[in-house]
Amino acid sequence: MISLLNRLLIPFLLLWISTNLCAQTAPSKLEIEEYSGLHKAAYLGDVESINRLVETGADLENRDNAGRTPLHVAAFASRDNAVRALALAGAKLNALENDAYDILTIAAVANDLELLDLAISLGANTGNITSRYDGTALIAAAHLGHHRVVKSLILGGAPLDHINNLGWTALMEAVVLGDGGKDHIETVRLLVSYGADRNIPDNRGITPLEHALARGFKEIADLLDWPDKQ
User: Does 149 lie in the same domain as 62?
Assistant: First the structure.
């Protein structure tokens, strides 16, 4: 069992580290200080200035050095009113910044349910392919055990079984990159109950159930195995 555990987990530990090193990059203090126009108004949540700037022809899709539009900046700052104002003015909800994140995935990683629900209500695409791993907001949320976000994304039509370029679905990430605690247990329960395919293996042919057993995640293993016993 120890050798099996090592065989399964060592590559994923390295990938977990690299994933965290390559996490989303919010605007830095220096960048914020240098913002002007719509980027500054978006960061501050200044809806009055946003509307005035839009009326005078400001470019909604203008980008900072990291490829962030004002909408991305508002999302990183969790300025819901600014997100709404920019979206209603015509900002592209599915735009990606330089690390290939959209506002839904920014909200998913931040566990910002209010922002996420707002973005979905405004028309953001829950199936957008995001991040350098060609994932989705659902995969990002499942990875982190943000189960309330996971549920909203599922109800919003997010694809349950999208496979990223690591060969992982949302369900696989919840097992492989999760900690086996209550948040990831609930994440797995939601994914399974809404119909995620429990049998899609990783690139080496190992299923989520096999990973859960190897990691000693009994409750998750039971969730993954239970439907086969009915």
Answer: no
Average pLDDT over residues 64-81: 98
Rounded to an integer, the average pLDDT of 202-213 is: 97
Convert the pLDDT of each residue in 154-196 to its tens digit: 999 999 999 999 999 999 999 999 999 999 999 999 999 999 9
Q: How far apart are CA 209 and CA 214, in angstroms?
A: 9
Q: How is 202-221 classified by DSSP, letter by letter?
A: -TTS--HHHHHHHHT-HHHH
Count the helices and strands in the chain (H runs, E runs): 14, 0
Per the structure, the complete domain to which residue 163 belongs is given by: 1-23+99-230
CA dist., res. 129 & res. 158, Å (int): 11
∠154-160-162 over CA atoms, to 5°?
A: 135
What is the pTM assigned to this prediction? Answer: 0.90
CA 130 – CA 127 distance, rounded (Å): 9
